[in-house]
Every structure is written in structure tokens, then in C-alpha cells.
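Please predict the structure of the following assembly.
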Amino acid sequence: MSDEWQECMDHCVEVAKEAGKMIREALQKDISIMEKSSPVDLVTETDRKVEQLIISSIKEKYPTHSVIGEESVAAGASSVLTDDPTWIIDPIDGTTNFVHRFPFVCVSIGFTVKKEVEFGIVYSCVEDKMYTARKGKGAFCNGVPIKVSGQEDIKQSLVLTEMMFNKNPERFKTMLANVKSILTIPVHGIRSPGSAAINMCLVACGSADAYYHMGIYCWDMAGGAAIIREAGGVIVDISGGPFDLMSRRLIVASTKAIADRIAKEITQFDVGRDDAKVQ
Ligand code: IPD
């Protein structure tokens, strides 16, 4: 069985390269922008075309596998994770970056078996960095092993999170208050690169020490989850408890000490679940 998943992973890397080429070409042309759930939730024709490319390639080769894709779910498809081999796809993670040509844009794909992440790839296609990881086999960037910083002291750390408008005033206030709490520890700084998957890879390769977020989706987290674990980092729920891929929240850190400290500072708010429709 293990070779079968390796073959899937090799296919995943090839299709991500093709998708990345499509994104780079699209960056050279006019980009037409559409809104999804809010004026700050954007989608483009390229998101949809890239997702179609990836899904058709997977369906042709692995017709029995399941797929959860960001744009398919936006169009009404299910986002319930089952025990089936499942490809969880974000065709462009960092769509807002893409529309502004801010260069942190990636293709993120995680592959689960019995609801556990078996492998993940994140292709930061403008930087041409292919992050890959398979359970028990280590994490790599362009084939070179990567590992987390190992930083234990929150006061010596660089923390990533994302800030955006939230139409719920209480949540918006809490999100900003959380940023203030983390800055006040104090940490060396907070950065917002604009792509959840790239944020996870930045922690995985030691360029940052932590990343926290409430309100992202399984397709933002699945690829990076494999990479951070295999790079020796930790991934937990925003409460500090076990990570749940469908929970829409996470803390990623170089060490448990840093993850625990962030969990202690954060005030949670309800963001729902990816699989809420079945609850
Ligand atoms: C978004 C990015 C961004 C995060 C948003 C995500 P998308 O993904 O990961 O960093 O702040 O919450 O939705 O929409 O570009 O795939």
C-alpha cells in the first residue's frame, strides 16, 4: 500500500508544477476579480481553472479517490472528510496576493487516508519552491531537507498570523486584541505573508517560529500539516489541544513551549467547522 501512496505523491508533485506554471502565466495577463462570501474573500477565473486542472488529472488517474477542493465547495460540493483516500486542494492559496501580484502564492494539496494526512505538498510557484513531506519520511524544499528553528523562547520568536476585515464586530475586535496580546509578550514581531500554506512552510523551514489562525479551511491547512510535522514542528488546535483538520483553526510552532504560550494568550471565537453541514 505504501508504494501506492508514493505514486500518488509523485503524481501530486507533477500536477502542482503544471498548476504553478498556469498561475505564473496568469500573473502576466489581466486578472478579473470576483467576490465570494465578502468583499475581502476573492476568487478569480484562474482559481477555478487551476482547480479543474488538478481535479481532472486526479480523477483520471485515481477515479475511486475523493476530492475536497476550495472552489468546488464554494460551488456547493461537500467538504466532509471520510476514511477514503482524499485529496484536499487549494488551487491558489493566497488569492488576494495573486490579484495584487504580491509574490506569496501557492498550490496546496494534502492527501488523507482514514482521515490522517499521509502526504502534503505546497508549491510556492512565484518563488519556485516545492515543499513536500510524506508521513515518516521527512520534509523537503526543492529536495533539500528542512527543519523548524527549535526556538523555545516566545520572546525570541517571530510569529505569523493573518489579519483581515471581519463583518462580525466582536470577532474583529477579538482578532485585533489577540494580535495586541502576542505583541505585548513581547515577541520579536508579527508578519502576515497572506498564504496559510506558505506560513506553515515558513515555520517548517525555520524562517518563523509560529503561526496561528482562526477561520481558515481544511484546504489551507492539509498540505502544510504534513510539512510542519515532518520538519519536526508541532501543530495543535488554537486551544493547545489536538489538531483537527476540519476545525478551521490551528497553531503551528517550532516547539510545544511556543505553541502552549500562544494558546494561553489567544481568546477564541466561534468559526464553525468545514464539515458543519453533517452535524
Ligand atoms: C486564504 C489565505 C490567507 C488566509 C485566508 C485564507 P485563499 O486562502 O490562506 O492567508 O488569511 O483565511 O482563506 O482564499 O487565498 O485560498
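The longest strand covers residues 116-124. Residues 2-27 form the longest helix (26 residues).
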